[in-house]
Write a structure and sequence with these properties.
Blueprint lengths: L2 E10 L5 H11 L2 H4 L6 E6 L2 E9 L2 E2 H13 L2 H26 L8 H27 L6 H16 L6 H8 L7 H17 L2 H6 L4 H7 L4 H13 L15 H13 L4 H25 L4 H30 L1 H11 L3 H4 L4 H10 L4 H9 L1 E6 L2 E6 H8 L2 E2 L9 E3 L1 E4 L2 E8 L14 E4 L7 H6 L2 E4 L7 H9 L3 E3 L4 H4 L5 E5 L4 E4 L1
Parallel strand pairs: 1-7, 10-11, 11-12, 12-13
Antiparallel strand pairs: 1-3, 2-3, 2-5, 3-4, 5-6, 8-15, 9-13, 10-14, 14-15
Amino acid sequence: MKIHYKAFAEDHASPYPHAASYMTACSTLLKPILGRNNYTICMDSRNAQWRYCCRQRGEISEWDELGKLVLERLGEQGFLVKVYSEEKKACLNLVTNSIKLKYASLANKPNVALSDRYDELLSYWRAMNVWGDIVNLSDFGHFMLTNKILAFLEEAVDRSNSDISAGEAFGILGTPTERSFMQQEEFELYGILAKIQSDRRAKGIFSMEIGSIIPSLVHIPKISLPLIAHAEKYDWLQFHYDGPTILQVDYFADLLRSELKQGIDGKSKMNALVRHEKEVLEGQQLMAKSLRLTKDEIYWCKVARTFSYLKGLRKDSVFIASRNSDPLIREIARRLNLSPKQVRHMMPKEIRESLKTGKVDADLLNSRISLYVMVADEKGPRILAGKEAEKWSKLIVEEKVDKKIRRLTGTPAYPGYARGIVRIIRKAEDMAKMNKGDILVSPATNPNVVPAMKKAAAIVTDEGGVTCHAAIVSRELKIPCVIGTKVATKWLKDGDKVEVDATKGIVRKL
């Protein structure tokens, strides 16, 4: 039976430690949890643009087989509790231990200590990723969880003669009820805004030029200290995997200055956020009652909410750990006379050996940057470069698209209708072209591009089910969103005019 790999996700960044450590975790640590390891994944990376691919044997997708197994296990409510508790604990362990690296004095540490720190970091990263694979397997690519929930919601809508659509119902029932790191950041920033608005001197200071604000706040510690602490805590918001953007206190001061100019009341915003959280819980209870959902159906909506939260938590944890481990990566790079990007293309054992011997094959690393393939199958995880990588890369098949078609369908993530100009947003650097009212089209969104998402009249993605980042954020922002189109970024280009009917999950070219 012919084996090939199907591309089902892409991103932009150096592959290690996140992408490659994810594959290592899934192919070596999953068996005690699920009864088998995930040997389906291959990744090819070209100039830090990488694709996740899943193995296919003929027409059979092994990723889909694993997805069915996960859904079977989720039939046991205790398994959901286990996944939630273990993944949350692993995420918080990664964040806590990465913070130690952020403030560690590394310059005088012996080389072996740097190797130990890096290996320890990756052990926490892998623990997070192996439980995260359970979440991914439930819905990613095949949309099994999405289809299961939307199917019974459509039946419930018909059964109860409701005038709400299944997509709208899920917009309420699928919203996570725990705050993400980013939601907490917003809440805390409004708290600082409220303090500024209660102090006449502080309000005057925030009318100054941005470079004068922080020096002038030194005599108002009740505001300057929380603001500086806030910047330290959330400087990772635009770091993604590689950075180099680390937000400074002036960035947050400028946000506050803008909010003051717009007349936004901090205390009212905080109260509104708390009220919204209460309304979400009440709305979910009322929706379940009005649609006459069974206990089993209510449980599967809980699965989606839990996994939406865990996906967001994991993604935030990755970016926090990436930012906090940046000093370690740079110190290793300095000692080996390499760039941080070269270090991020090294396997952990190579880092240890190079720090031990002082020898490093820079040509090999440069070759990997141009192209490398990582395979995680029954033979174990391994990294390939050169001709061998080219050979494996040819086994990867992309989703085909007919550019002559006038409409594309996907899954409604948040209902609504919009018309606008397409902007393809693949990475943070693309956000500069995004204007208010444009249609954001992306392979998959992440916290790094939230500023662009806030400008969008609608959001369309190739990837993701109802628990993906785009679905979560679109529900928070109440922006029409269609996910899981598979080929929107290939079918559309910057400047195309489209209409998005997110209630039906349809995108049309105009």
